[in-house]
Design brief:
This protein has about 200 residues and is mainly alpha-helical. Among the domains are: about 85-145; about 150-195, no CATH class. It is built from 3 helices and 3 strands. It has helices at about 1-25, 25-145, 180-190, and strands at about 150, 160-165, 170-175. It has a 3-stranded antiparallel sheet with strand order 1-2-3. Helix 1 packs antiparallel against helix 2 (about 25-145). The longest helix is centred in the middle third of the chain and has 121 residues, at about 25-145.
Length: about 200
């Protein structure tokens, strides 16, 4: 725009100069010369305007392309941010699940250890029970070998019943523990045992 105003000022100077020369008489030659220069200058001005318009169109087109690319990049960035947020949320949920699983795993391990300990105790108790049962069976067998008494376990708790197989004859036992002292019952049973072994 500054170049156009300079050219307009130049044209005013030329016009004034022409008027001066016309007054001096050389006006015709100078007028032709100046008209030729003015025509060249107007042609250059028109070319400059065309070039300027073309450059402006290209600049606007380039700006539109850049704006479109920027808009596309912003959309891509927005989509990437949403994807990143989604991944972060999934990671957070996965971490929460992992913490829960670890907690559950620890709880299950504790339960498993408690069950193992309970099984170990039950096995020990079963072994002790088996040992006791074997010991009790052995003692019953030993008692029988010594005293030769078959006990009747189906009687009432206060009654002592059974059969004593002595050296000569089998003898029935029927004692009421509520009517006799323990010492009497013990002495009575020991008197049945054969001491000649």
């Amino acid at each position: 725009m500054a170049a156009i105003s300079e050219k307009v000022q130049d044209m005013e100077k030329v016009s004034k100069l022409l008027l001066k020369w016309m007054a001096e008489g050389k006006a015709m030659d100078m007028l032709k010369n100046n008209l030729s220069k003015q025509e060249k200058m107007i042609n250059k001005l028109l070319d400059t305007q065309k070039t300027t318009k073309q450059l402006l169109r290209e600049l606007m087109s380039t700006e539109e392309k850049v704006a479109q690319k920027l808009s596309d990049r912003e959309e891509e960035l927005k989509a990437s941010l949403e994807k990143l947020q989604k991944i972060e949320n999934e990671l957070l949920r996965a971490n929460e699940k992992d913490v829960k699983l670890r907690t559950n795993t620890n709880d299950l391990r504790k339960e498993l250890e408690a069950l193992r300990e309970e099984i170990r105790r039950q096995e020990e108790n079963a072994a002790e029970g088996a040992d006791s049962s074997v010991s009790a069976t052995y003692l019953v067998h030993l008692y029988y070998q010594i005293c030769h008494i078959d006990w009747d376990y189906s009687c009432e708790p206060t009654m002592i019943k059974g059969t004593h197989y002595g050296p000569d004859i089998a003898q029935s036992l029927n004692l009421d523990s509520s009517q006799h002292s323990r010492c009497f019952i013990s002495d009575y049973l020991w008197n049945l045992v054969n001491t000649s072994w």
